[in-house]
């Protein structure tokens, strides 16, 4: 018990039995860490399992598991009737950070660089820490509606496809994948397009799509037009490209096209960013008349329209208006969309639809950012589209989300007799709440926190003319909606009385 190895192990190994990581993994990681750092050298004999167990108050079976784990990775050799001897594998792997470290903390990695680099203010994270039981977001779907059991079977079946390995091993990928062909068929059927695979590029997300498009379109000081109170995530991407963002007024019919015609001249605008159905964050729809005016203006002024159709799948009342891109004969529209918003994020995919020459260049950028893609995801989504499962999932979830929208409106009406106003949107997963008379939304958020309700800054919109909240209801069930509205009312009442 007093051997030098035992004393060294006592200094090196610190086990936390309350830790989620199993004790035998903690111990083996810390021993590997000690070997890699040179504290335990090749040829050193580790204490016997009983001695090791007494040293750290461990069951002998746990110690056996520690040594077996080390042996399976090639760090020790277990010699029957003799003991366990440390080896140093010929192919050394990267150092494993042990669960607890004390004696070797002097070797921790540097927190700062030894060279200058350009930080990006525009890409500062917008997420906030939140430990409250209830929270409101900007309109995210409810992942609890994801058909987990069905997807586990579909995913497993996709992984077993014999063609999958051959696709991964291809040195040159085909110009158009089966997934892109299926996605084209789906978009042609649901959105009125007449596209082929060379008009489409699939990406990991709608944000990746917009980033690639901005790299193609924008140079420093180019002018990008966005609606007043626009999508902060899109603005971050435009600003990172060096563009100058100009805001355009929004009214009940959406973007004010006449304002653009009066205040800008031909060739002064590089592109305009619009939401296809409901403007983010106000949920106001772009009218058919404004759509025609905007498309004509884009042709006359020679600028691009980036049409973001992020919530096409969530149309509750009537039929969704077809995208402007479905009737674009002049090649002025770049259409961004999402597939699978009712699924777990790892099964969702973004896509870009545009003229063939732009898609060809965009895919060059995609090869740099995401050459491999996710073949299992694509295989599974292809089959879900072909078998009609995607369409069925959307239809089922639309019924649930519509009920939640209507219930939220009922709860707001019941709790707020005055002071808060909203319109019921025809779709989407958020309401635009307006406070009149105006209050401090920052103080409202602080009061809400006292009632275990979190209001992130990204849903608060306040300036001289605006005092509104984008209230996302998609990820809340009816019981949660009722509780959240009551807590919001309590916070609002305290604000009104103060």
TrEMBL record:
A Pfam family matched in the record: GntR
GO molecular function per UniProt: transaminase activity
Domain HTH gntR-type: 21-89
Domain of life: Bacteria
Membrane-spanning residues: none
InterPro entries: HTH_trans_reg/aminotransferase (IPR051446), PyrdxlP-dep_Trfase (IPR015424), PyrdxlP-dep_Trfase_major (IPR015421), Tscrpt_reg_HTH_GntR (IPR000524), WH-like_DNA-bd_sf (IPR036388), WH_DNA-bd_sf (IPR036390)
Keywords attached to this entry: Aminotransferase, DNA-binding, Pyridoxal phosphate, Transcription, Transcription regulation, Transferase
Keyword Chloroplast: no
Family: In the C-terminal section; belongs to the class-I pyridoxal-phosphate-dependent aminotransferase family.
Protein name: PLP-dependent aminotransferase family protein
Organism of this sequence: Thalassobellus suaedae
